[in-house]
Amino acid sequence: FSPGLLLVAGSFAAFRLLNRGLERLVPPPPSARRNRWKWRNIWTSLAHSALLGTHSPSPCRFCLHPGLSEDLVGTHPPGAHSLVAVSVGYFLEDFVDMLCNQKLHQSWELLFHHSVVIVCFGIAVLLHQYVGFALVALLVEINSIFLHLRQILLMANLVHTTCYRLNSIINLGTYVVFRIATLAWMTRWLFLNRENMPPATYAIGTVGMAIMTPMNIILFYRLLRSDFFK
């Protein structure tokens, strides 16, 4: 096994253990006790987003690395490959968790999303290429912090609070900057560099963007309608 695959396996095991122990660390409120697995699942997702979004080797810091914007294929800062491998482990754990605890018709969108991410990030981990591209994609995790906080506040029945309203505003702002704008930049980069990429890799990247972009626009509409136009 390559070090990257070992890191993926270790990350999977670590997030699995965290998921199992979270109910003791963060007991669910009465309003969330009907759906204990989801409470644990969201807190696990928040832990992953917080790790990537606020830790010192965050994607935001890595994206300031000289030359990264010009070469997302072979250039990446030290530690970036490990960061992507850790994320693959998390997405695998979350995929298994949803598959085991939620009905397919309720989770197919996220399962589909995770499948695309696992394939694309997995290629970067195995080939040690396109790590920079995966790193840019991880910028969305900065928004995911507030997206998961929103779900936690909803489950805790704290919708009519200042905290929820403030989080909704920050969530929507970071959604535009770190999700929609990031995906648009990545799509543009793929188009401009299509002649320098192998056809199979370009096809996978294009299909990934074609799936992710509409999904994120639909989610943005749902958030806007639920939190501001309800």
UniProtKB/TrEMBL annotation:
One GO CC term on file: plasma membrane
Topology of the protein relative to the lipid bilayer: Multi-pass membrane protein
SMART domains, sorted: TLC
Top-level taxon of origin: Eukaryota
Coiled coil: none
Positions of transmembrane segments: 133-149, 169-191, 203-224
Record's keyword terms, sorted: Membrane, Transmembrane, Transmembrane helix
InterPro entries xref list: TLC-dom, TLCD
Gene Ontology biological-process annotations: membrane assembly; phospholipid homeostasis; plasma membrane organization; regulation of membrane lipid distribution
Subcellular location: Membrane
Keyword Chaperone attributed: no
Sequence ranges assigned to domain TLC in this UniProt record: 34-230
Alphabetical list of PANTHER family matching this protein: CT120 PROTEIN, TLC DOMAIN-CONTAINING PROTEIN 2
Protein name per Swiss-Prot or TrEMBL: TLCD2 protein
Species of provenance: Fregetta grallaria
Source species taxonomy: Eukaryota, Metazoa, Chordata, Craniata, Vertebrata
